[in-house]
Structure formats: structure tokens, C-alpha cells
Design goal:
single chain, 190 residues, alpha+beta, Sulfate adenylyltransferase, 5-stranded antiparallel beta sheet, 4-stranded mixed beta sheet, RNA binding, cytoplasm
Length: 190
């Protein structure tokens, strides 16, 4: 979705009532962020809405991008926010072989998650790892960690649930995600 660099469009201030609704939606979608919501979306600070290409809305606090949303799709955190609060989001992990494809903008495929280096919830390490061992459904927002790397490399919406991924072991897992080095990552809001 953000493969190419682009310039931000119109910037407008979000009304306080809409800001409360966004705040509630973020807490509903990402319950683990609730203790940090006042740091992420302070009540007294102005939230800005920046229009970017392909009908995407980017919510910012000053020059800091926080969340983006494509039309009526789920609200998705920006990777800078994910790197600051990694424990607040549902995570999966890709193997080393999938990293270069993700960072070149390719669709994340299921084999990168089901191979020995990948991790999905429900495996032997799942209790302390991703989502407390619960399966993740299609349409849920996930953060993708990379094997052997400290920070997440991709955030996006799952195309199929993790249970189905384990059964099929093929097909697209995440399309149109936001990854390190894409246009949204390089966007200058100053």
C-alpha cells in the first residue's frame, strides 16, 4: 500500500468528540495499550488528521504518526508506535528468509510464518509469546517480528486466521501492510 514515497495531503484538527471516539476504538482494538493510552493519545493535546493517498487517514500528535486507517478498515498502529510499545500488540514472527521479501514490499506469505523460524500462537512457546496462545482471526491487526531482530518489521491485517494458516501452510497472510522503509515510514510530517 505504501511502497512508493508520497507527500502528505491536507492536515486538519480532529474534533474532541471524534478524538474520544478514536481513543475508545484504539483501546477496544488493542486492550493491552489501555494503561499507556494517556501517553499515546493524551486528552489535552490536539490530534491531527493527515490525508494521504489511496483514501488513508493518518492520525498524528504533532509530527509523530500514531495510527493509520484505510477507509473503514481497522485502525492500525504506525511502526514507530509499535517500536515504542511492542508489548501492547498481537504479534507473530517470520523466519529469516521472509525478511527481505517483506522489506521489499511483497505480500507476506504463510510459509514465512509456519516454517521453523516463524511463530504463530498455539505453538510450544505461545504462552509467553504471541497473544497468550489464542488463535488470531482473519481481519485482526498483527505486528510481525522478524527472527533474530529486535524490532518489528511489518504491521497489517491478517488475510486468514492462524488456525487456517497451520492447516493450509500456503497463501497470502498479510497484504498491504506498513513495513520498515516504506513510504509511510519515510513520510516527513514536520
Amino acid at each position: 500500500m505504501f511502497k512508493k514515497e508520497f507527500t502528505p495531503g491536507a492536515k486538519s484538527k480532529v474534533k474532541s468528540s471524534a478524538q474520544r471516539a478514536i481513543r475508545a476504538k484504539v483501546v477496544e482494538t488493542y486492550p493491552l495499550i489501555e494503561p499507556y493510552i494517556d501517553e499515546v493519545l493524551p486528552k489535552k493535546e490536539q490530534l491531527d488528521l493527515v490525508k494521504i493517498p489511496d483514501r488513508v487517514s493518518l492520525y498524528c500528535n504533532g509530527g509523530t504518526p500514531l495510527f493509520w486507517q484505510h477507509m473503514d478498515d481497522p485502525i492500525v498502529p504506525h511502526l514507530q508506535l509499535v517500536h515504542k510499545y511492542p508489548w501492547c500488540f498481537t504479534r507473530v514472527r517470520i523466519d529469516r528468509g521472509g525478511i527481505r521479501f517483506v522489506l521489499s514490499g511483497a505480500t507476506l506469505m504463510v510459509p514465512g510464518l509456519t516454517s521453523p523460524g516463524g511463530r504463530l500462537p498455539g505453538g510450544e512457546e505461545s504462552e509467553e509469546w504471541a497473544n497468550g496462545g489464542k488463535e488470531i482471526e482473519a481481519g485482526d491487526v498483527v505486528v510481525v517480528d522478524a527472527e533474530g531482530k529486535e524490532n518489528a518489521c511489518l504491521v497489517g491485517v491478517l488475510k486468514m486466521g492462524t488456525k487456517e494458516m497451520k492447516e493450509k501452510k500456503k497463501g497470502p497472510a498479510i497484504e498491504n501492510g506498513h513495513y520498515v522503509g516504506d513510504g509511510l515510514w519515510k513520510l516527513d510530517l514536520s
